[in-house]
Amino acid sequence: MALRIMRLSEVKAVTGLSKTTIYRFEKEGRFPSRVSLGERSVGWFEDDIQAFLISLRQAADGNVA
Question: Residue 20's domain spans which residues?
């Protein structure tokens, strides 16, 4: 299984969330934690982002009357 790191620009594009919202959700425990890639570089594991999106979908499907 190959692990892939997504940078912020890709995470924003895939989730539709802003940088501010991503960091706020992360602080609140509602979004996957970023990983340090260097002194001034971070990213997210792609499978963590996919799991986040799946959980949103499941929540939305559960809220349909």
Answer: 5-62
Instruction: Give the tens place of pLDDT for each residue, 9-29.
Output: 999 999 999 999 999 999 999
Give the number of other Cβ atoms within 10 Å of residue 55's Cβ. 11
- Determine whether 4 is exposed, middle or buried from the number of CB atoms within 10 Å of its CB (0-12, 13-18, 19+): exposed
Model-level pTM? 0.86
Give exposure, 26-53, as e/b (b: 16+ Cβ within 10 Å). eeeeebbebeeeeeeeebbbbebbeebe
